[in-house]
Amino acid sequence: YQPDYDSDDEENRKRKIDFYRYKHLLKKSQAVDCLLGYDDDDIAIEGARADIGCPEKHAMVAGTMYKWIKTSLEKNMKAVTVSCPMSDCKKYVLDWDTITAIAAMNGKEYAKWTGVIEQRLRPPTKNCPHCKAEAQRKQGVIIFECDVQHVVIQIGVGIVNNNGKVVD
């Protein structure tokens, strides 16, 4: 059983690269899928392959790309980019718009994985133990506390409170 293209079952739903919709972004490739080895014999099942944008012109089908994005972001909790999976160009960072188009992500999946990256790029914050206000920690802060007036008390360089104001 494979759910339809617009299904919420992100793991098992059918994926097909929409070359028409992303004609400005994607190029079909004759290269074999660089991870799973799909070739022209597998087009009926897995769909066409797209050039992933790396210097070595590796290619992937939609399902392989989605699994690669998911694996890359799940195995490294600090990752904010996805690189080519092949050892000869593993250091090459792939374009997010290109790989999400290849992965045939629906809106929910795109929002989920883009949100993961955006969350990792945010500066570290901490919530006040009393009022739960979020504040960005600055270097050198030792104590973080908030009283009834929501004033941040600290020792060190300074901290930005939930209003974005540096409090001394």
Reconstruct the topology from this structure:
Elements: E1 28-29, H1 43-46, E2 49-51, E3 59-60, H2 62-75, H3 96-102, H4 107-121, E4 125-127, E5 134-136, E6 145-146, E7 152-153, E8 159-160, E9 166-167
Helix pairs in contact: 2-3
Structural notes for this entry:
This protein is of the alpha+beta class. Helix content is 24%, strand content 12%. The chain is built from four helices and nine strands. A three-stranded antiparallel beta sheet has the order 1-2-3. It has a two-stranded antiparallel sheet with strand order 4-5. A two-stranded antiparallel ribbon has the order 6-7. It starts with 27 loop residues before the first strand and ends with a strand.
Number of strands: 9
Distance N terminus to C terminus?
A: 61 Å
Give me the strand/helix succession.
Answer: EHEEHHHEEEEEE
Q: Report low-confidence residues grouped into runs of 5 or more.
A: 147-157
The shape, in one word, is elongated
- For the residues shown, what is the average pLDDT? 78
* Radius of gyration from CA coordinates: 22 Å
Please state the structural category.
Answer: alpha+beta
Tally of separate helices: 4
Helix content: 10-25%
Percent strand: 5-15%
Profile the largest sheet.
3 strands, antiparallel
In what order do the strands lie side by side in the largest sheet? 1-2-3
